[in-house]
Input
Amino acid sequence: MAMTNREAFRKGFKAGIPIGLGYFAVAFSLGIAAKAVGLNAVQGFIASALNIASAGEYALFTLIGASATIVELILVTLVANGRYILMSCALGQKLSPELSLGHRFGVGFFITDEIFSLCVSQEGYLNPFVSYGAAAFSVPMWSLGTAMGVIAGEILPVRVVSALSVALFGMFIASFIPPTRKNKVLLGAIPCCFVLSFIASKLPWVGDLSEGSRSVLLTIIIASALAFAFPVKDEPEDSAVEGKEVTE
Output
């Protein structure tokens, strides 16, 4: 039986609580970076609310500090966030063909590493309200964390703020480990991804790429290899309808 939109939102919101708490801690360091280039708390809040990506925002704040042009800001932010394009394409396979364009844009806007992991692990078609529920708590916490980081400024030592990011990595790992219990391919792919990512960071040419560009390159290679070696079969109709209802 498909979840109602209210049930899907509640499920997403509950899952978004630990995500948001991790985001708040990590965004503190973003706030300090924003403060360093002259942004105030309101500007930092808006930047995080519209971007929702640590690598992209670090690049954005760095370019603002270097007095870059608008075109440079757009291009660099696009490259730094390039992996989300791939995530959107992958998540698009989890959406019902009947889902409206508005909901597709909504789900796409709120994609982060952790929300993507939550959404892609759902059974059958994704109800977009799962994504909205997770974003309802995590995105404001991300933005608030940035604003608070700006306000805190240099009060906290940078090393202390950086140490808080460990919580986010632990939360991210916890979001994709449970599905490995049912999927042996995923279970084997995860450690392979870690190993390949480490090797790529040490290679002469690939290691010189930015983390975002390297992630995009590795994602294309690994995902293509797994898709070729372990093609996903079409889901049965009774499973595919899970989460399909989106109108209320």
Notes: Residues 236-242 have pLDDT under 50 and may be disordered. Residues 51 and 57 are 7 Å apart (CA to CA). The chain is about 70% helix and 0% strand. The two ends are 16 Å apart (CA to CA).
